[in-house]
Amino acid sequence: MSDPRTPTADRVGELTDRLAAVRERVAEACRAAGRDPSEVGLLAVTKTIPAADVAALVDLGLDAFAENRAQEAASKVDEVRALRPDVSPDWFFVGGLQRNKVRTVLPWVTRIDSVDSTRLARAIDKEVAKARDAGERGGPLPVLVQYSVDGDADRGGVAPEGLVELTDLVTELPGLELAGLMAVAPLGWEPDAAFERIAEAHRETVGRHPGATVLSAGMSGDLESAIGHGSTVVRVGTALVGDRRIASE
Fold first, then answer.
1. Its domain of life (predicted)?
2. Torsion of CA 24, 220, 152, 39, to 10 degrees
Protein backbone atom coordinates (compact mmCIF):
# COMPACT_ATOMS: atom_id res chain seq x y z
CA MET A 1 0.00 0.00 0.00
CA SER A 2 1.32 3.43 -0.92
CA ASP A 3 2.05 5.95 1.82
CA PRO A 4 -0.34 8.96 1.52
CA ARG A 5 2.42 11.13 2.98
CA THR A 6 4.64 10.41 -0.01
CA PRO A 7 3.62 11.30 -3.59
CA THR A 8 4.28 8.71 -6.27
CA ALA A 9 7.26 9.02 -8.57
CA ASP A 10 4.87 9.84 -11.39
CA ARG A 11 3.33 12.68 -9.37
CA VAL A 12 6.74 14.08 -8.47
CA GLY A 13 7.69 13.94 -12.14
CA GLU A 14 4.49 15.74 -13.10
CA LEU A 15 5.08 18.49 -10.53
CA THR A 16 8.68 18.85 -11.70
CA ASP A 17 7.61 19.30 -15.32
CA ARG A 18 4.80 21.68 -14.44
CA LEU A 19 7.05 23.83 -12.27
CA ALA A 20 9.66 24.04 -15.01
CA ALA A 21 7.01 25.08 -17.53
CA VAL A 22 5.58 27.77 -15.22
CA ARG A 23 9.03 29.15 -14.49
CA GLU A 24 9.78 29.32 -18.20
CA ARG A 25 6.50 31.17 -18.83
CA VAL A 26 7.39 33.70 -16.13
CA ALA A 27 10.91 34.12 -17.51
CA GLU A 28 9.64 34.57 -21.07
CA ALA A 29 7.02 37.09 -19.96
CA CYS A 30 9.71 39.05 -18.13
CA ARG A 31 11.95 39.02 -21.19
CA ALA A 32 9.09 40.31 -23.32
CA ALA A 33 8.44 43.09 -20.81
CA GLY A 34 12.11 43.98 -20.41
CA ARG A 35 12.07 42.90 -16.79
CA ASP A 36 14.39 40.76 -14.69
CA PRO A 37 12.70 37.45 -13.75
CA SER A 38 13.93 37.95 -10.18
CA GLU A 39 11.42 40.82 -9.91
CA VAL A 40 8.46 38.39 -10.07
CA GLY A 41 7.72 35.94 -7.28
CA LEU A 42 5.87 32.66 -7.77
CA LEU A 43 3.13 31.95 -5.25
CA ALA A 44 1.89 28.35 -5.49
CA VAL A 45 -1.85 28.09 -4.87
CA THR A 46 -2.20 24.75 -3.11
CA LYS A 47 -5.84 24.70 -2.06
CA THR A 48 -7.35 21.20 -2.09
CA ILE A 49 -4.06 19.43 -2.85
CA PRO A 50 -2.54 17.17 -0.18
CA ALA A 51 0.29 18.14 2.11
CA ALA A 52 2.47 15.51 0.43
CA ASP A 53 2.31 17.45 -2.83
CA VAL A 54 3.27 20.65 -1.02
CA ALA A 55 6.22 18.83 0.53
CA ALA A 56 7.26 17.68 -2.94
CA LEU A 57 7.10 21.28 -4.18
CA VAL A 58 9.23 22.34 -1.22
CA ASP A 59 11.78 19.74 -2.30
CA LEU A 60 11.70 21.30 -5.77
CA GLY A 61 12.64 24.68 -4.35
CA LEU A 62 9.33 26.48 -3.80
CA ASP A 63 8.99 28.38 -0.56
CA ALA A 64 5.72 30.35 -0.92
CA PHE A 65 2.28 28.75 -0.79
CA ALA A 66 -1.24 30.17 -0.83
CA GLU A 67 -4.42 28.82 0.71
CA ASN A 68 -7.97 30.15 0.69
CA ARG A 69 -9.76 28.14 3.37
CA ALA A 70 -8.87 28.79 6.97
CA GLN A 71 -9.59 25.34 8.42
CA GLU A 72 -8.05 23.34 5.58
CA ALA A 73 -4.98 25.55 5.59
CA ALA A 74 -4.33 25.26 9.32
CA SER A 75 -4.24 21.46 9.21
CA LYS A 76 -2.20 21.42 5.99
CA VAL A 77 0.43 23.75 7.45
CA ASP A 78 0.80 21.38 10.39
CA GLU A 79 1.09 18.37 8.07
CA VAL A 80 3.74 20.01 5.92
CA ARG A 81 5.67 21.02 9.02
CA ALA A 82 5.65 17.38 10.15
CA LEU A 83 6.76 16.17 6.71
CA ARG A 84 9.51 18.79 6.31
CA PRO A 85 10.47 19.86 9.84
CA ASP A 86 13.71 21.50 8.70
CA VAL A 87 12.02 23.84 6.21
CA SER A 88 9.84 26.87 6.99
CA PRO A 89 7.99 27.97 3.84
CA ASP A 90 5.91 31.12 3.80
CA TRP A 91 2.13 30.74 3.80
CA PHE A 92 -0.29 33.30 2.41
CA PHE A 93 -4.06 33.56 2.72
CA VAL A 94 -5.66 34.61 -0.56
CA GLY A 95 -9.38 33.88 -0.19
CA GLY A 96 -12.33 35.63 1.35
CA LEU A 97 -11.72 35.75 5.08
CA GLN A 98 -14.53 35.91 7.60
CA ARG A 99 -13.80 38.05 10.60
CA ASN A 100 -14.45 35.16 12.98
CA LYS A 101 -11.78 33.08 11.20
CA VAL A 102 -8.95 35.56 11.64
CA ARG A 103 -7.83 33.89 14.86
CA THR A 104 -7.55 30.57 13.04
CA VAL A 105 -5.29 32.07 10.38
CA LEU A 106 -2.91 34.14 12.51
CA PRO A 107 -0.78 31.32 13.99
CA TRP A 108 0.54 30.25 10.59
CA VAL A 109 0.04 33.03 8.08
CA THR A 110 2.94 35.08 6.70
CA ARG A 111 0.68 37.60 4.99
CA ILE A 112 -3.05 38.03 4.38
CA ASP A 113 -3.56 39.00 0.75
CA SER A 114 -7.32 39.54 0.72
CA VAL A 115 -8.16 42.48 2.99
CA ASP A 116 -11.17 44.00 1.28
CA SER A 117 -13.07 45.97 3.92
CA THR A 118 -12.49 48.29 6.84
CA ARG A 119 -14.32 45.84 9.12
CA LEU A 120 -11.97 43.00 8.19
CA ALA A 121 -8.92 45.25 8.58
CA ARG A 122 -10.02 46.26 12.06
CA ALA A 123 -10.76 42.63 12.99
CA ILE A 124 -7.28 41.53 11.92
CA ASP A 125 -5.70 44.42 13.81
CA LYS A 126 -7.61 43.45 16.95
CA GLU A 127 -6.47 39.82 16.77
CA VAL A 128 -2.87 40.83 16.05
CA ALA A 129 -2.94 43.00 19.17
CA LYS A 130 -4.10 40.01 21.23
CA ALA A 131 -1.39 37.83 19.75
CA ARG A 132 1.28 40.43 20.50
CA ASP A 133 0.05 40.82 24.07
CA ALA A 134 0.29 37.04 24.46
CA GLY A 135 3.83 37.03 23.11
CA GLU A 136 2.80 35.12 19.99
CA ARG A 137 3.73 37.89 17.52
CA GLY A 138 6.53 40.38 17.58
CA GLY A 139 5.36 42.92 15.04
CA PRO A 140 2.60 43.98 12.66
CA LEU A 141 1.18 41.56 10.11
CA PRO A 142 1.84 42.35 6.44
CA VAL A 143 -1.32 42.48 4.35
CA LEU A 144 -2.39 43.20 0.79
CA VAL A 145 -5.57 45.10 0.06
CA GLN A 146 -7.65 43.20 -2.47
CA TYR A 147 -8.69 45.55 -5.24
CA SER A 148 -11.76 44.98 -7.41
CA VAL A 149 -11.47 46.63 -10.82
CA ASP A 150 -15.19 46.35 -11.58
CA GLY A 151 -16.53 46.56 -8.02
CA ASP A 152 -18.20 43.12 -8.20
CA ALA A 153 -18.96 42.38 -4.55
CA ASP A 154 -19.55 38.69 -5.27
CA ARG A 155 -15.90 38.18 -6.22
CA GLY A 156 -14.41 40.10 -3.32
CA GLY A 157 -12.22 43.15 -3.26
CA VAL A 158 -12.70 46.81 -2.48
CA ALA A 159 -14.28 48.87 -5.25
CA PRO A 160 -12.23 51.67 -6.86
CA GLU A 161 -14.04 54.39 -4.93
CA GLY A 162 -13.14 52.76 -1.61
CA LEU A 163 -9.49 51.95 -2.26
CA VAL A 164 -7.94 55.13 -0.81
CA GLU A 165 -10.00 54.93 2.37
CA LEU A 166 -9.07 51.29 2.97
CA THR A 167 -5.36 51.60 2.21
CA ASP A 168 -5.14 54.72 4.37
CA LEU A 169 -6.84 52.88 7.24
CA VAL A 170 -4.50 49.90 6.99
CA THR A 171 -1.49 52.18 7.35
CA GLU A 172 -3.03 53.71 10.47
CA LEU A 173 -3.72 50.42 12.25
CA PRO A 174 -0.74 49.46 14.45
CA GLY A 175 -1.20 45.73 13.94
CA LEU A 176 -1.05 45.86 10.14
CA GLU A 177 1.58 46.69 7.54
CA LEU A 178 0.38 47.63 4.05
CA ALA A 179 2.55 45.63 1.66
CA GLY A 180 0.61 46.39 -1.53
CA LEU A 181 -2.38 45.27 -3.58
CA MET A 182 -3.82 41.98 -4.79
CA ALA A 183 -6.21 41.81 -7.73
CA VAL A 184 -7.91 39.43 -10.15
CA ALA A 185 -8.85 40.25 -13.72
CA PRO A 186 -12.68 40.31 -13.84
CA LEU A 187 -14.49 37.59 -15.75
CA GLY A 188 -15.15 38.61 -19.32
CA TRP A 189 -12.54 41.35 -19.37
CA GLU A 190 -9.65 41.46 -21.79
CA PRO A 191 -6.61 40.82 -19.53
CA ASP A 192 -4.52 43.76 -20.74
CA ALA A 193 -7.37 46.19 -20.09
CA ALA A 194 -7.88 44.77 -16.59
CA PHE A 195 -4.22 44.74 -15.61
CA GLU A 196 -3.67 48.23 -16.97
CA ARG A 197 -6.28 49.53 -14.53
CA ILE A 198 -4.88 47.40 -11.73
CA ALA A 199 -1.38 48.76 -12.40
CA GLU A 200 -2.70 52.31 -12.35
CA ALA A 201 -4.39 51.72 -8.99
CA HIS A 202 -1.15 50.27 -7.66
CA ARG A 203 0.90 53.24 -8.86
CA GLU A 204 -1.52 55.60 -7.13
CA THR A 205 -1.33 53.52 -3.94
CA VAL A 206 2.48 53.56 -3.96
CA GLY A 207 2.31 57.30 -4.49
CA ARG A 208 0.40 57.63 -1.23
CA HIS A 209 2.17 54.79 0.59
CA PRO A 210 5.68 54.19 -0.80
CA GLY A 211 6.13 50.93 1.07
CA ALA A 212 3.20 49.24 -0.69
CA THR A 213 5.36 47.87 -3.48
CA VAL A 214 3.83 44.40 -3.86
CA LEU A 215 1.40 43.86 -6.73
CA SER A 216 -0.01 40.35 -6.66
CA ALA A 217 -1.74 39.93 -10.02
CA GLY A 218 -1.92 37.23 -12.64
CA MET A 219 -2.84 33.55 -12.45
CA SER A 220 -2.43 30.44 -14.59
CA GLY A 221 -4.33 31.81 -17.57
CA ASP A 222 -3.17 35.42 -17.67
CA LEU A 223 0.17 35.73 -15.89
CA GLU A 224 1.93 37.00 -19.02
CA SER A 225 -0.36 40.02 -19.27
CA ALA A 226 -0.04 40.72 -15.55
CA ILE A 227 3.75 40.61 -15.69
CA GLY A 228 3.68 42.95 -18.66
CA HIS A 229 1.81 45.45 -16.50
CA GLY A 230 4.14 45.27 -13.52
CA SER A 231 2.95 42.38 -11.36
CA THR A 232 5.52 41.42 -8.73
CA VAL A 233 3.79 38.17 -7.68
CA VAL A 234 1.86 35.68 -9.79
CA ARG A 235 -0.48 33.20 -8.11
CA VAL A 236 -0.40 29.88 -9.95
CA GLY A 237 -2.59 26.91 -9.13
CA THR A 238 -3.88 24.77 -11.99
CA ALA A 239 -0.86 25.24 -14.26
CA LEU A 240 1.39 24.13 -11.41
CA VAL A 241 -0.50 21.38 -9.58
CA GLY A 242 -3.15 20.35 -12.12
CA ASP A 243 -6.89 20.15 -11.65
CA ARG A 244 -7.09 18.25 -8.35
CA ARG A 245 -10.23 19.82 -6.87
CA ILE A 246 -12.13 17.79 -4.33
CA ALA A 247 -15.82 17.08 -4.72
CA SER A 248 -16.86 19.45 -1.93
CA GLU A 249 -15.20 22.48 -3.54
1. Bacteria
2. -20
3-class secondary-structure state, position 170: helix
> 213, 20 in Cβ contact below 8 A?
no
Q: Is the pTM here over 0.90, yes or no?
A: yes
* DSSP summary character for residue 154: G
Residue at 126: amino acid letter: K
End-to-end CA distance of the chain: 27
Beta pairing partners, 163 = none
Handedness of CA 29, 230, 35, 42 (dihedral sign): negative
- pLDDT one-digit tens code per residue, 164-217: 999 999 999 999 999 999 999 999 999 999 999 999 999 999 999 999 999 999
Does residue 114 surpass a pLDDT of 90?
A: yes
58 contacts: CB under 8 Å, gap ≥ 6? 80, 84, 87, 89
